[in-house]
Every structure is written in structure tokens, then in C-alpha cells.
Write a structure and sequence with these properties.
Elements lengths: L1 H23 L3 E5 L10 E5 H23 L1 H50 L12 E4 L5 E3 L6
Antiparallel strand pairs: 1-2, 3-4
């Protein structure tokens, strides 16, 4: 909104000045393309404002073309770096995906090891048909005797 207002404030007076310049300088002037003045066929007449505005427009166009040509290497370098940046981003994404998969695989392996160790550490329950005075079999394979004589 503010930029539009500023452009109106600048462009309207500029347009008014250009119109006034064109009205004041509408008399035809003679323009000769022959520097020595020996060839009258290289001369023409045109209003002064047309010549000045045409010169201004031609200067802006030539300056723009010259700037475009001289900045070509910078645009090429920027495009090359943009492609390189995109390639590096894709590599980072692929690396992050591989890392995520490896972490998930490690977590699955740890969970599987934990469950296998938990099932291996649990001692088998005592048989249900054992007499009341006997405990679970001792590591030697003989039944342990519970009570005062056991020691």
C-alpha cells in the first residue's frame, strides 16, 4: 500500500513533466548523420522531444542488455549452486532416512534380545505333583529337602 502510494507520488509528477517537455519542444529540428556535412541524404527532421525520448529509451535498452550480458556468469554460477544445493539436500534426506531405518532396526534387535533374555532368565516353575517337603530340583538334579534337616 505504501509502495503504491510512493510510486504514485513520484510517477504522476514525472509524467506531467514529460508531457510539458514534449509540448514545449515540439518544433522539428534537423538531424544529420554525416559528421562532415558533405552528404545531405543522411539528414532528417524530427521534433526535439521525439529525438530526446528515443535517445533515452535507446540508452536504457542498451544499458539493460549490457548489464544482462555482463551478469551472465553470475547467473550461471547461481544456477549451478542451486542445483548443487538441491543435490545436497536430497543426499541429506536420503542419509536421514537410512539413519532412521538403522535406528529402528537397532531398537527392534534390542527389544528382541531383551525378550529372549527375559524368557531365558525366568526359572521353570516347580512341578505341581511334588511332595510338600520337597522344593524344586537343585542344580545337581537331586531334589532339595526343605526344613531343618536340609542344612
Amino acid at each position: 500500500m505504501i509502495s503504491r502510494l510512493l510510486s504514485i507520488i513520484v510517477l504522476v509528477p514525472l509524467a506531467i513533466l514529460i508531457v510539458i517537455f514534449c509540448v514545449v519542444n515540439r518544433e522539428p529540428v534537423s538531424v544529420s548523420m554525416d559528421a562532415l556535412g558533405t552528404s545531405p541524404q543522411l539528414a532528417f527532421q524530427a521534433p526535439l522531444f521525439v529525438l530526446i525520448l528515443a535517445s533515452l529509451i535507446l540508452g536504457v535498452l542498451l544499458g539493460g542488455i549490457a548489464t544482462f550480458v555482463t551478469q551472465a556468469r553470475y547467473r550461471a554460477r547461481a544456477a549451478r549452486r542451486a542445483r548443487e544445493l538441491e543435490t545436497l539436500r536430497q543426499e541429506v534426506d536420503a542419509s536421514n532416512e537410512r539413519l532412521r531405518r538403522e535406528r529402528e532396526d537397532r531398537e527392534r534387535e534390542r527389544a528382541a534380545q531383551a525378550t529372549s533374555q527375559a524368557t531365558a532368565q525366568v526359572a521353570p516353575p516347580a512341578p505341581r505333583d511334588a511332595p510338600a517337603g520337597l522344593a524344586a530340583p537343585a542344580p545337581s538334579g537331586r531334589p532339595a529337602i526343605a526344613g531343618p534337616r536340609a542344612a
